[in-house]
Write a structure and sequence with these properties.
Blueprint: H1 7-18, E1 21-22, H2 23-30, H3 34-46, E2 50-55, E3 58-63, H4 65-78
Antiparallel strand pairs: 1-3, 2-3
Length: 79
């Protein structure tokens, strides 16, 4: 819970709920710097909430099944 308790990480997770994104797209969605997004993505990957896949020259990030379940649980709690 400590990982998703940080506002910036939660914003990244919310953006990834809709679709896969590269860091440059996450910059637009979250209004965070590229270095900060990369740092948070590293933490989210460590906790198995996010995975990555290289497509061409870019790396796209997506929620893992675990990450999706956590986000669904959060939305259920908020409702």
């Amino acid at each position: 819970m400590k990982v998703i308790g940080e506002d910036s990480r939660l914003r990244i997770l919310c953006a990834l709920q809709c679709s896969d994104h590269c860091v440059c797209e996450l910059e637009e969605h979250t209004k965070l710097s590229q270095s900060l997004i990369s740092h948070h993505l590293k933490d989210l990957k460590t906790t198995n909430m996010v995975s990555d896949a290289k497509k061409g020259q870019k790396v796209y990030y997506s929620l893992t099944d675990f990450g999706s379940n956590v986000m669904k649980s959060l939305l259920t709690i908020k409702a």
